[in-house]
Write a structure and sequence with these properties.
With 390 residues, the protein is an alpha+beta fold. The protein is built from eleven helices and ten strands. The strands form three sheets. A four-stranded mixed beta sheet has the order 1-4-5-8. Strands 2-3-7-6 form a four-stranded antiparallel beta sheet, covered by helices on one side. Strands 9-10 form a two-stranded antiparallel sheet. The chain starts with a helix and ends with a helix. The structure holds flavin-adenine dinucleotide.
């Protein structure tokens, strides 16, 4: 059946011409502009401001935002390609773009009212960094145990509480923030709000000093009688739990892409080094022990790519993808940690120093098993879906 064969994509990881072009552009940008800054940003623990401006100029902060709002009008799959390519150079760059696209813009696009879209999407596409604020000191995996309170007073909600671990918070102008309008209602009280940095009573607090993704800001948020106009409720009051669950389901594919980029970045350095480093009179890539390690890593990276791309394609196709997204994140973070750790070993003693790039990949890989649902939480989602509650 040659006609049928022609219609089939040549591989599950095959890209369209447009996707190839997009990927190549992001790759070139990541090589020329991101990679040279990665080490210094990691050391200082600060993300380069101009780099964020360049993300906006390239359309990377509004990939799925329709052109009518100034966005790139692309697909979720392109956001995934961008996160992968940026993370190959620097995982912090990857997460800045990831949170903006897969969580913040995504929530606004899906649940924003026409007025909210008109008001916020052009800003998100052009110049405003976004954050997604769900976690608190006492509620991480058990996210719906959150304590931040929202009380309706006149035309405003008044928010009180603290959020912890909020990515992009230092740079952000807009926050999708979850609070409860009725603690006695449990998860059915949870409501999503669009909070602007300038709203009275809102402060960005302490910035964490982290093991990895050090350039990406992670901060506490403090809400003290923070007044949020009633029209800034995203979706319906009491339906925030649905927004949180569904955005995070999609976001997890983004973290899978970030970890895919980290694994690739570390692997590429390991291969190059193995082909240069000489011991016993030959390059270490001649030793079968090293060859097998490189082959195993390449195989695992390919498996991650299949999981991540497939979950992203399913999301774009509008078919259920929750299990696939959880599997992609779970496995990608395991592989990123394993591959970057082996890359250090292939570098020998040099790999253990900050003079060489591989130790950073290993530090950056660790977060993949923690945020947007720990590995245990992914396993719990997968178990529920494969066991069908039995
Ligand atoms: C760098 C960084 C950036 C972050 N960015 C954001 C952000 O932008 N927005 C945001 O809202 N949050 C963010 N987070 C928070 C992150 O999502 C939480 O840290 C994560 O969900 C885990 O919650 P926790 O830290 O409270 O750990 P806990 O929930 O206390 O978990 C501790 C351990 O117990 C295990 N555990 C918990 N419950 C179960 C269970 N039922 N079964 C089995 N094991 C279980 C976990 O797997 C983990 O190993 C970020 C965190 C970090 C570190």
């Amino acid at each position: 059946m040659p006609e049928l064969a022609l219609q089939q994509p040549p591989a599950l990881t095959a890209l369209t011409d447009d996707e190839n072009l997009f990927r190549d552009n992001v790759r070139q940008f990541a090589e020329e502009k991101v990679r040279p800054l990665a080490r210094e940003m990691d050391e200082k623990g600060v993300f380069d401001k101009e780099l964020i401006e360049q993300f906006f100029q390239l359309g990377l902060m509004g990939i799925e935002i329709p052109e009518q709002y100034g966005g790139a009008g692309g697909k979720f799959f392109e956001a995934i390609l961008a996160v992968e390519e940026l993370s190959r150079a620097d995982a912090s760059a990857g997460v800045v773009v990831d949170v903006q696209n897969t969580l913040v813009n995504n929530a606004l696009l899906r649940w924003g009212s026409p007025e909210q879209k008109k008001r916020y999407l052009p800003r998100m596409a052009a110049a405003t960094v976004g954050s997604y604020a769900l976690s608190e000191a006492g509620s991480g995996s058990d996210a719906f145990a959150l304590q931040t309170r929202a009380e309706l007073k006149g035309s405003d909600y008044v928010l009180n509480g603290r959020k912890l671990w909020i990515t992009n918070a230092k740079e952000a102008g807009v926050f999708i923030l979850f609070a409860t309008v009725d603690p006695s209602a449990g998860y059915k009280g949870i409501t999503a709000f669009i909070v602007e940095k300038e709203f009275p009573g809102f402060t960005v607090g302490k910035k964490e000093d982290k093991l990895g993704i050090r350039a990406s800001s992670t901060c506490e948020l403090v809400l003290e009688d923070c007044r949020v106009p009633r029209e800034n409720v995203l979706g319906d009051a009491g339906k925030g739990y649905k927004i949180a669950i569904e955005t995070l389901n999609e976001g997890r594919i983004g973290i899978g892409a970030q970890m895919l980029g980290v694994a690739r970045g570390a692997w590429e350095y390991a291969v190059k080094y193995a082909q240069e480093r000489k011991q016993f009179g030959q390059t270490i890539s001649h030793f079968q022990g090293i060859q097998f390690q490189i082959a195993q890593m390449a195989t695992e990276i390919e498996a991650v790519r299949l999981l991540v791309y497939n979950a992203a394609r399913m999301k774009d196709a509008g078919v259920p993808f929750v299990k696939e997204a959880a599997m992609a994140k779970l496995f990608a973070s395991q592989v990123a940690e394993r591959v970057s750790s082996l890359a250090i070993e292939i570098y020998g003693g040099y790999g253990f120093t900050k003079d060489y790039p591989v130790e950073k990949y290993w530090r950056d890989s660790k977060i993949g098993k923690i945020y947007e649902g720990t590995s245990n939480m992914q396993l719990s989602t997968i178990a529920k879906l494969v066991l069908g509650g039995k």
